[in-house]
Automatic annotation (TrEMBL):
One of the Pfam families matching this protein, by short name: AsmA
Domain of life: Bacteria
PANTHER family: DUF748 DOMAIN-CONTAINING PROTEIN (PTHR30441), PROTEIN ASMA (PTHR30441:SF4)
Name the record gives this protein: AsmA family protein
Domain AsmA intervals: 1-211, 293-518
InterPro entries tied to this protein: AsmA, AsmA-related
């Protein structure tokens, strides 16, 4: 046993001696600067780009045999302008090929302080196409010629075992899409970079984009394989973490797992990912081919309020809700105008589907949301757009058209809501309940503008509602007729009128909703009316005809029993939050006269008026 140990020690010492001697010989005889011109010429021959290496190349023996370069730069194709530059480069070599075959095999690359600019031109071509394209051997070109060109007895071959990148800065100027990506603090540590060889990579970076203004801190690890012939990179077992923020104050975190495939030949990216985005569980597939984005996403629950820009109003995805009763939009008229910039969607080319189990938009809640997206040529359409909400369901479409003016797109909403409970919907959408009841609402609306005020003022289209068992807020018409205490007054939130049925159709122009066929039924009254709502300023101008139901029970009082069938004209005006009401005294007198008798002598009219006053219990002030 001891003999074996002695033999092993002697063998190990001999190996160390041989290796040390070999390294000493290499250090004494190997001059890395002898390969400097060969490397430069090889790069120029292969790429027609100029490689500049500043200063001398220094040999390093520890921790791996290699050379250290100082600052280096690579020109654009043809030598015009700088494409990339580095603060330092370290190339490590495989020792055995160097000693046995005098072949320099680069097996590890370390880059520090790299800076590069990638450009995609308007025609779709890129300034790295020559570097990523498959190499075609030119006539007369001999294999390995570049390795021997210039000087130096050995050939140079790249068989990269690993790459390390520290603190790189990449800029992607996408002139075709009209946006710039900035990748800073990029750190990469990869395994082998070779055709068909499974490997792994770890990466971290700060990624910014100017349109829209977003910044993302990205950390991910993944397995990958490179197919040089098809110019594809396939990433598997990808594990990514993203912290996203925007200048508008939006912040989000995501943790995703899945796979990613990049096809440089077809300019395509394919992804299949699952994970968490903030409080939402997400799964989906996506593809980017030739600038066309395809997405199929499934989300368990999503609250869009957390992604609202800082200071922006609640999104009226309840434009459905607010417009449903032809009521004002969610932001009150007194609120300052809020700019709305959707220009980033003008260049979107996309298609796909979205499924959301539970969705909250501007306070409005929906479930089982299904949407199909189609965007291109300056138009974005979501059709169909369906969901279950507030005890009913809705189907419709939403479109945004940028073709006339990208800064003020035309927006259109078509929605058919069936069997919904309108009161809770309006309360969630606007914080108010001017109207409640269960029934149907149909909307066909369009508008345009760069801010909330302009959108309300430009609102046009049609709306219709049919409700039952609901309440009109702000005024008690039954009490007004029943008690007959005054001829004028101011409504309040504490007052309301219950109805068993209500229907109305609206024609909307310039933010004004016009109606001529309002009908409603209450236990005391049959109501008809016409007028308009100013949606931009939240005001009302309406004329109601409240006809007393002829057959009333005794507890409704003698005045109501006496006036069964009489129509009381009521005018509503002013702000919706505190509208005023006014009984049309002259019209009521004429109505009473018609009810009592057609031909009345002039002298008897005053007596008739007095009788009506008594019956109304003081509706006319004396």
């Amino acid at each position: 046993m001891q003999a074996r140990i002695r033999f092993a020690v002697i063998a190990l010492g001999a190996a160390v001696l041989v290796l040390g001697s070999a390294l000493g010989i290499v250090a004494a005889r190997f001059d890395p600067n002898a390969y400097k011109s060969a490397i430069v010429e090889r790069v120029h021959e292969k790429t027609r780009r100029t490689l500049t290496i500043g200063g001398d190349i220094r040999l390093a023996l520890y921790p791996r045999l290699g050379v250290n370069l100082g600052k280096a730069s690579l020109s654009e194709l043809g030598g015009q302008g700088e494409f990339a530059a580095l603060d330092s480069v370290r190339l490590s070599f495989a020792l055995v090929p160097l000693l046995l075959r005098q072949e320099v095999v680069v097996d590890r690359i370390e880059l520090r302080g790299m800076r590069a600019t990638l450009v995609r031109r308007v025609d779709g071509s890129m300034n790295i196409d020559d570097l990523t394209a498959a190499r075609v051997k030119h006539p007369g070109q001999q294999a390995g010629a570049a390795g021997n060109a210039g000087a130096g007895p050995a050939k140079v071959r790249f068989a990269v075992d690993s790459i390390r990148v520290d603190n790189a800065h990449l800029r992607f100027d996408d002139r075709k899409a009209g946006r710039v990506f900035d990748i800073a603090r990029l750190n990469v540590d990869s395994g082998p970079i070779a055709h068909g060889v499974p490997s792994r990579v770890a990466l971290s970076a700060n990624i910014g984009v100017d349109q829209p203004a977003l910044n993302t801190v990205l950390i991910f690890e993944s397995g990958f394989a490179l197919d040089r012939d098809t110019r594809r990179v396939v990433m598997t077992e990808l594990d990514a973490n993203l912290d996203l923020s925007s200048r508008a104050g939006i912040e989000s975190r995501a943790k995703l797992k899945g796979s990613l495939e990049i096809d440089f030949g077809k300019e395509a990216i394919l992804a299949a990912l699952t994970g968490k985005i903030d409080d939402s569980s997400v799964s989906g597939k996506g593809a980017l081919r030739g600038g066309l984005l395809q997405l199929d996403i499934d989300i368990d629950r999503l609250d869009l309020a957390r992604y609202r820009a800082r200071g922006a109003p609640a999104a009226v995805g309840a434009a459905v809700g607010a417009a449903a009763a032809s009521a004002p939009a969610a932001a009150p008229a007194s609120a300052p105008d809020q700019p709305i910039d959707l220009s980033a969607l003008a260049r979107l080319r996309a298609s796909g589907t979205l499924q959301v189990g539970e969705l909250s938009v501007g306070g409005v809640r929906a479930a089982n949301v299904h949407a199909v997206l189609l965007a291109g040529a300056g138009k974005t359409t979501i059709k169909p757009l369906s969901a279950t909400l507030y005890g009913g369901n809705g189907t419709g479409a939403l479109s945004i058209d940028f073709t006339d003016d990208a800064s003020t797109p035309r927006m259109a909403l078509v929605q058919d809501l069936r069997g919904i409970s309108l009161g809770p919907l309006l309360l969630d959408a606007t914080g108010k309940t001017p109207l409640s009841g269960r029934g149907d609402v149909q909307l066909d609306l369009n508008t345009r503008g760069a801010g909330t005020t302009a959108l309300r003022e430009a609102l046009a289209g049609t709306a219709a509602l049919r409700l039952r068992d609901g309440v009109i807020g702000g005024i008690d018409l039954g009490r007004l007729v029943h008690e007959a205490k005054a001829a004028a007054g101011v409504g309040s939130e504490a007052e309301s009128t219950s109805f068993s049925e209500l229907s109305a159709h609206f024609r909307i122009e310039g933010g004004l909703a016009h109606n001529t066929d309002l009908t409603a039924s209450t236990p005391l009254l049959r109501i008809g009316g016409e007028g308009q709502l100013d949606l931009a300023n939240e005001t009302i101008d309406y004329r109601l005809r409240c006809t007393v139901v002829p057959s009333l029970s005794g507890h409704d009082g003698p005045a109501a029993r006496t006036l069964g069938g009489l129509t009381v004209p009521v005018a509503l005006s002013g702000p919706l939050a505190q509208m005023t009401w006014q009984v049309d005294v002259a019209a009521l007198g004429s109505e009473a006269a018609k009810k009592t008798g057609a031909a009345i002598p002039a002298g008897a009219k005053e007596k008739l008026k007095d009788r009506v006053k008594d019956a109304l219990g003081g509706l006319f002030p004396r």
